[in-house]
Each structure stands twice: as C-alpha cells, then as structure tokens.
Write a structure and sequence with these properties.
Strand content: 15-25%
CATH superfamily of the largest domain: Zn peptidases
Shape: elongated
Number of strands: 16
Helix content: 25-40%
C-alpha cells in the first residue's frame, strides 16, 4: 500500500499546494476562522464526506472503511493564523493586512486535506474509521483543542489514538522528526503587580520602592526552578516585561511585570504556581509593599505516548527511509495538541520544511516565515500511511 499512497500523494501534490496558497493568502486569527472552516468543509464535501462544525469554527469529518466500528484513529490539523505583518514578496502573500500564517497552520490544513483525499480513495482497502479534526485557535488561550474536547471531538466515535504534525523550519524538507515521551512544555502566563509608595527619588526614606521590591522578586523567583524541584524535570521561568513608569528622579507607586512559566510535569507545575505566588507576596510584604500575582493557566505539557510513537516512527521509516527520520530534542515551546495527549494516546511529529538553497530558513512566528512546498506531498502521504498503519496495528 505504500507505493499506492505515494502515487496518490504525487497526484494530489499540485492541489495541496494550491490549497495551501489559498489559505496563506486569506489567513484568519484564532476563533475567527469562519472562511477557513467554510473552505475546508467545501473541500471535504467534494470528497463525498459529511463535515460537521464544532467549537464554532472547527470542522470534523469521518472516513469510514470496512467494519468502521472496529477502530478509530484521529488526525489533527490547526487552522488559525497570527497577528503578524507578512514581509514575504510572493504571489500568495497574505491579503489580510497584519495577519499571517507564520506558524505553518496553512500547511497543516492543506496537508490534512490531501491526506483525506488519499485515504478516501482507499476506504475499501482498510477496516476502521479515520476521524479528521480541523481545529481552530491553537495560538490563543484557552486553545481550540480544549474547546473541541469539551464539545466532544474525542467521542462518537472515540479514537484510540490521535496523530498530529507540525512544520519544522530547522529540519530540511524531505526529513521528519520524532520523539517518544515528553516533548513540549506547558505554558503559563504570569501577570504581577507590585505596589508601594512612590515619590521623589532623592527622598528614599519617605518611600516604599516598588522598583526595588520587583527586582528582588525577579531574582528570587528563579529559585523556584533551580532549588525547589528536580533538575531532571525541564522548567523555565522568565520575566519578559517590566514597566516602572517613573523617571530619573521619580519612584512610581507600582511596577507591573509579565512573564512565562513552562515545564513538563503537571504535578510540579501546580506546586510551582503556589511557590511563585508565596515568594512574591512574601517579599513584597517584608519590604512594606504588596503584590498581586496572577497566573493565566495555559496548555499542559505534550507527551508522545511511547508505544504509539515507536510504532509510527517505524512506519515512517518504511515510508521515508531510515536516513530521513531523525530524533527530536525537547522543545520548551507550547502546543495545544497537548490537551489531546493528556486524554488519549497521541503522537506529534515534525515535518521538515527548510530549504537553504532557496533561502527558506526563517523561524516560525516571524514575518518572513515560509516553507518548501515539496514538504506538502510528503506530509499528506506520510500521514495517510501512518493512519492506515495504525488502524492495522
């Protein structure tokens, strides 16, 4: 069946590229993917499928083989874009000013549409059901995946496993990457307000300096990572924004800070939340001020179920060749596919899209991000092969 899938992917390649360029030209932000969802639904209807709307801008469809109740495998693509002004000068440049597919979700969606086209032509040759999940709002909390799950995307029928892929601009086109076990971090946003008593900078005895208090808090928070939990568990705590709206001779009444906390252990994550808050509030109080410490809980950490991932990696090697399947390192970025991975067996792998000869080297979330579109044929064919292989496992 591998050669048949390869041939079908090759036949579909031009349409996959066309779909990707259409999606890239008309990007939509998180929770606003109305036209994108309509486009996806229409493409699925062309295949004779019956797409259903979920989470308002999500699309779900089933491809049923023989004995469809025997097993279900889910395939997921995300559809939203980012608030970035595109700097690429290409024929498919974004037509929506200030909105851009800078994370490859256009490629994910187009690739999964290609996968659907391939699998639909093979439905008399496999047993079970493929559930196609086109998901909104990966880029914005609380994450479209969490809403899709609440709306029942993992039910009726309930998949035994779920597979997702993501473009990787650091990996050459033609190669893919896998990692078993924990892979991507949980993502929490920190919003801290330190309050004191401002005044003239030359009269410190009359003040409660929130700038000084904030400085102590920033330094002390690092012990949460370095001295409160095992160094075997990856964790990052960074403060990326500090606003103290004073002047050379003016101490403000308050200082606001924003940051992120990321880790790969849900138990430790909860402990760290309490420790951060306690440390910050304690320091502020001991220095005469106060601290309001708010944590916006984001995505959980993403874990690739080892047995599933091992099977899929072996299958990918059969499809791609050993030399084109590489090992991935831990990645402290976040991905709402993690919500699925906390519910059922999941595998999230990376699709190489880099082409140095053509200057396609920019990272995701940048205004010059683009992909080598030859990766789309690989992405569609490989996902079809992995899904059908998993149905038979």
């Amino acid at each position: 069946m591998i050669n048949e899938i390869r041939n079908l992917a090759k036949e579909s390649a031009s349409q996959i590229v066309s779909n990707r360029r259409h999606l890239h030209s008309f990007p939509e932000l998180s929770f606003q993917e109305y036209n994108t969802a309509k486009f996806v639904a229409e493409e699925l209807k062309k295949l004779g499928l019956s797409p259903q709307t979920m989470a308002e801008t999500g699309v779900v469809a089933l491809i049923e083989g023989k004995n469809p109740q025997s097993k279900t495998v889910a395939l997921r693509a995300d559809m939203d874009a980012l608030p970035i002004l595109e700097a690429n000068e290409v024929s498919y440049k974004s037509q929506h000013l200030g909105v851009m597919h800078a994370c490859g979700h256009d490629a994910h969606t187009a690739s999964l549409l290609g996968t659907a086209h391939i699998i639909n032509q093979l439905k008399d040759k496999f047993e079970g059901t493929i559930k196609l999940i086109f998901q909104p709002a990966e880029e914005k909390a609380p994450g479209g995946a969490s809403i899709m799950i609440k709306d029942g995307v993992l039910q009726n029928p309930a998949p035994q496993s779920i597979i997702g892929q993501h473009v990787a601009p650091q990996i050459p086109a033609g190669k893919i990457g896998f990692r078993e076990g924990m892979y991507m971090a949980s993502t929490d946003e920190l919003f801290i307000t330190v309050k004191g008593k401002g005044g003239h900078a030359a009269m410190p005895e009359t003040l409660i300096d929130p700038v000084l208090i904030a400085s102590h808090i920033i330094i002390a928070l690092q012990q949460v990572v370095s001295r409160n939990f095992s160094p075997k568990i990856p964790a990052v705590l960074s403060i990326g924004k500090v606003i103290a709206n004073g002047a050379t001779n003016v101490i403000p009444n308050e200082v606001s800070m924003e940051g992120t906390f990321r880790t790969m252990n849900e138990e430790w994550r909860a402990i760290a939340h309490a420790r951060m808050k306690k440390i910050a509030e304690g320091i502020a109080e001991s220095m005469g001020g106060s601290c309001d410490f708010q944590i916006l809980r984001g995505y959980p950490f993403l874990v690739n179920e080892p047995k599933l991932t091992k099977r899929l990696r072996k299958a990918a090697t059969e499809f791609m060749g050993q030399e084109n399947v590489i090992d991935l390192d831990l990645w402290m970025a976040g991905e709402d596919f993690a919500f699925y991975s906390q519910q059922i067996d999941a595998c999230f792998y990376r699709l190489g899209t880099r082409n140095e000869a053509r200057g396609i080297i920019s990272g995701v979330h940048t205004p010059t991000f683009d992909i080598d579109e030859s990766a789309l044929e690989i992405g569609a064919g490989l996902m079809a092969w992995l899904a059908l292989h998993e149905l038979r496992s």
